[in-house]
Design a protein that fits this description.
heterodimer, A: 389 residues, alpha+beta, six-stranded mixed sheet, 10 helices, elongated, B: 551 residues, mainly alpha, globular
Chain lengths: 389, 551
């Protein structure tokens, strides 16, 4: 993975936020954030600007520094270098109890000796919010989260999903500047997770809370976020909206980490700016490349193609109608197939390409998905992203 | 009668076990016989011995009332101070993570491996009539004998029990809870009061119970340092050894169980109301402990340092005392004390051989009992479990009295033999040994044995081929625990020794009472040295893998 990891990128450019003219001041700014644990560098020069009211996800494999970043934001760790600015104010040296930031823990960390009502009221009490006012605010949040009838219950008397909502309630009742969430859905079962995901996003949208969310689950990241920051080895890899992450990954790491990807070794024919021509097994096609990462002519590079970007000929007829100028046509033998309900994912052995290709077939093409069948697939011109080696 | 039907059906079940697996059944019957004979029978005898008039005599006499009140007061005082110190010490190490905690952690282990009355002895040498600090340094004419001396000695002897129990509980409190409180605006002190302390309460209750049982059964310290302050454990001894009043001795011994029982019920109530303290939420990456303020951290550091100095001073003074001809008068160097206690008499040798045999028996019985209860699902298994754990709740004094009463007459006339001492040691430390073995077995997948029996191994065969190799570490732990505790034990043994079977702990007490401080200290130092060597060998063989005293 090492060689795939990029150097830190310029936050202003990547986030597309104009800060000089002051028209859209970011709400939260991470500036050159660095944290070491002994010899290990957990976070390495992280720069990020987060807009007010946005839902931002820190996504990455375990050990990428996303949780450490969140804990620095909460004030549990002091960064070795760099700073966190909220509304332009430095948070350096501020202990957790002086920050108006609230965190939802992965294990919820509900106070087991207090009932739901007292869990929610705990922070307000510390802020010296008076009895009736406190009661009103807690009840409002309980009502908002559908927890009113559980107010007198203790955490161990609640289901996992309810506990999760209490943890969220305990944070939002504080009306924090920034809401932090550390893999809050990882302890829920698969079905509940998808439901709560939608709920969480809706709550965040209604309250307009600036939310920073940590997960290693790309489905969560893609479905909930306004912006996703992909991290690896403590460094920021890409910071963009979910669709761009999937369709326009900036490097092979992101391409591989988000969704499934085929990498096909190709040779460039000409360095045609953003639309270079490449040769694949003796055929030619036009593909795209990221701005600023143009490749030269006659270089050995990687072509990235998502499984669903292939076109598939389900009959001899369709195959004959294809024209060599529309893209690259590959013939291969199906070695294995996974039936996924909405479609079939088959593994295709193509002569001249070392790795088997993952190709998505429509569910109706079930015959073609049988192991041993020979099928033809096409990479249309323009689909496929080029990465320098 | 339904109870009868239940019983017969279980006996029938045992019978069918016998046909299926005679070896396992025979072992079970043997172990059960041992428990009945050496735990249930003597206790039953002790309960049956006093008549109603004896009870009346005990409650109505002003003397016994005073003694009972003293005992209760002492239990309340020493338990409170032990728990407070144990809590602070545990908090400093687990939550505040004071510098040098790796070393500080070892200090409370010292009293656990040395006889409890060592503190009493050391305090006399330090603060007694001719005490080094009171007489030599300060030139005072006060002394430490009395309830305050006893309080000090018991606190130092028993706070480690509280420390171990409470540090386990503090470790189990998820640091994320404290972090969450901080994130919601709680400062350190507030987090402690509203989160850490309430969650530690059940553990504190459990610690208090353990300490209270130890304090109530403590015999050596009151004998040495209490002066004219009378408590039940020493009075029961005087009734039996001085007045041969067995029935009153039994009454006083049984009365000792009452406060322990009350405590037990209270603690169960506390635990019951705190089932909500069960951790909730699933797994999550656990953060390190939330930092406490520098002020708190360094105060706790100073506190632990003070305790450590105190603890180390005890052992140093005993070691110095061992080489001193006449404490308080002549501080020159001598080997004389060791010669008189080690070479010319056999008490240390007695302690060694009794404790050695007891440790082997204890570990063997504990291992087999744990195997039978947790692995074989025999009928009456639950009863065996309860009986094996029963001695943990019995103060040593009562155990000693029960043994005197039960084995004084045929068919099992054991008084005066070494066997009775060995048996009392086995029974005293069986509960801990049993729990060590059971903990290992519970972690073991039953499928391992199932596959062994699937491959054709019989019940006892699986024990020797599969179970024993796996639990040999816990067997050794039980062995070493029993040995280290048994060589210093006094409460029960003091009732059971006779002319040829005097053990070192009793001799230390005796020598100290007669003012032979040097000889007493020399023998105590030798006992401590033996315990340390035994532990050292254990560590050499098994490394730090198994922490003996964290069970």
């Amino acid at each position: 993975m090492g060689s795939n990891v990029r150097e830190p990128i310029d936050p202003v450019q990547s986030a597309g936020i104009r800060s000089e003219d002051g028209t859209a001041m970011p709400h939260v700014v991470l500036r050159d954030l660095t944290k070491n644990f002994g010899d290990a560098r957990a976070v390495d020069g992280l720069n990020l600007e987060i807009a007010k009211g946005s839902f931002t996800t820190l996504l990455g494999p375990s050990g990428c520094g996303k949780t450490t970043t969140l804990r620095i934001l909460a004030g549990f760790y002091e960064p070795d270098r760099g700073d966190v600015l909220i509304d332009g104010k430095s948070q350096r040296g501020l202990p957790p109890f002086k920050r108006n930031i609230s965190i939802v823990f992965q294990d919820y960390a509900l106070f087991p000796h207090m009932n739901v009502f007292d869990n929610l009221g705990y922070g307000l009490k510390l802020r010296r919010v008076r009895g009736p006012e406190r009661r009103r605010r807690v009840e409002k949040v309980l009502d908002f989260l559908g927890l009113t009838r559980f107010a007198k219950r203790f955490p161990h008397e609640l289901s996992g999903g309810q506990q999760q909502r209490v943890a969220l309630g305990r944070s939002i009742v504080m009306e924090p500047d920034v809401l932090l969430m550390d893999e809050p859905l990882s302890n829920l079962d698969a079905k509940l997770r998808i439901r709560v995901r939608t709920e969480l996003k809706e709550i965040q949208r209604v309250l307009g809370l600036t939310t920073i969310y940590v997960t290693h689950d790309q489905d969560e990241a893609l479905s909930m976020s306004d912006q996703v920051a992909v991290m690896a080895e403590g460094r920021l890899q890409q910071y963009s909206p979910p669709w761009a992450l999937y369709n326009e990954p900036v490097n092979p790491f992101v391409a591989d980490f988000v969704g499934h990807t085929n990498f096909i070794p190709v040779r460039t024919l000409q360095s045609g700016g953003e639309q270079p021509r490449v040769a694949v097994l003796g055929q030619e096609m036009v593909c795209s490349t990221r701005a600023g990462s143009a490749v030269g002519a006659a270089e050995n590079v990687m072509l990235m193609v998502r499984p669903e970007w292939f076109e598939v000929a389900t009959s001899e007829q369709e195959r004959r109608e294809w024209n060599a100028s529309e893209g690259v046509i590959l013939e291969g033998t199906v070695t294995a197939s996974d039936y996924l309900g909405s479609h079939n994912r088959v593994w295709l052995d193509v002569e001249g390409i070392a790795d088997e290709l993952a190709v998505d077939l429509p569910a109706k093409a079930i015959d073609s998905a049988e192991a041993g069948r020979k099928i033809s697939v096409k990479i249309p011109n323009g689909r496929g992203i080029l990465f320098g080696s | 009668m339904p109870v009868f039907g239940h019983l017969t059906s279980r006996i029938t079940a045992l019978n069918s076990w016998w046909r299926r697996d005679p070896w396992v059944t025979a072992t079970f019957v043997l172990i059960a016989l041992f428990m009945l004979l050496f735990i249930v029978y003597p206790l039953a005898v002790a309960i049956m011995t006093p008549r109603a008039s004896d009870w009346l005599r005990a409650v109505s006499s002003a003397r016994w009332q005073g003694t009972m009140l003293n005992t209760l007061q002492m239990a309340a005082l020493s338990t409170t101070s032990s728990v407070v110190i144990g809590f602070l010490y545990a908090y400093a190490i687990v939550k505040a993570r004071i510098p040098g905690k790796g070393l500080f952690k070892l200090v409370p282990l010292l009293p656990l491996i040395t006889p409890p009355f060592v503190s009493g002895l050391a305090f006399i040498l330090l603060f007694g009539r001719r005490g080094f600090v009171t007489y030599e340094v300060l030139g005072l004419n006060t002394n430490i004998y009395g309830w305050h001396g006893l309080w000090l000695a018991q606190t130092v002897s028993f706070f480690p029990i509280a420390f171990l129990a409470i540090s386990g509980v503090l470790r189990s409190i998820n640091p994320n809870l404290e972090r969450a409180a901080q994130s919601l605006g709680a400062r350190g002190g507030h987090t402690f009061r509203t989160i850490t302390l309430p969650l530690a309460i059940p553990g504190i209750g459990a610690a208090a119970l353990l300490v209270a049982i130890a304090v109530l059964g403590d015999f050596g310290n009151p004998m040495l340092i209490a002066g004219r302050f009378r408590v039940l454990a020493t009075e029961a001894y005087l009734q039996i050894s001085g007045w041969a009043d067995m029935r009153m001795g039994a009454v006083l011994g049984l009365v000792l169980v009452a406060p322990a029982l009350i405590f037990f019920v209270l603690q169960q109530k506390l635990q019951g109301s705190s089932s909500r303290y069960a951790t909730v939420g699933g797994r999550g990456s656990r953060m390190d402990e939330a930092p406490v303020s520098a002020w708190v951290r360094w105060s706790l550091f100073a506190f632990c340092l003070l305790i450590t100095v105190f603890m180390v001073a005890q052992y140093v003074v005993i070691l110095i005392g061992a080489f001193t001809p006449v404490w308080g008068v002549d501080y020159s160097f001598t080997w004389q004390n060791f010669e008189s206690t080690l070479v010319k008499s056999s008490q240390l040798w007695n302690s060694l051989r009794f404790a050695g045999v007891a440790a082997l028996l204890c570990a063997a019985i504990a291992t087999i009992a744990a195997f039978l209860v947790y692995r074989q699902r025999l009928p009456f298994g639950r009863a065996l479990d309860v009986i094996t754990l029963l001695p943990a709740a019995i103060p040593g004094t009562l155990l000693g009295i029960s043994y005197v009463l039960a084995y004084n007459v045929p068919p099992l006339q054991l008084t005066g033999t070494g066997a009775i001492i060995v048996l009392s040691m086995v029974v005293s430390y069986l509960p801990v040994g049993y729990r060590i073995c059971a903990a290992t077995l519970q972690q073991l997948q039953p499928s391992i044995e199932e596959s062994a029996s699937d491959l054709g191994a019989s019940g006892m065969r699986t024990f020797f081929d599969v179970v024993l190799p796996i639990i040999k570490t816990s067997f050794s732990a039980a062995l070493i625990y029993c040995f280290v505790k048994a060589i210093g034990t006094l409460s029960a043994v003091v009732f059971l020794i006779s002319h040829g079977t005097v053990v070192a702990s009793a001799s230390i007490l005796n020598l100290a009472e007669q003012g032979y401080w040097g000889a007493s200290a020399a023998l105590a130092s030798s006992l401590i040295a033996v315990a340390l060597i035994a532990l050292g060998i254990f560590r050499l063989i098994f490394g730090g893998r198994l922490n003996l005293f964290e069970i």
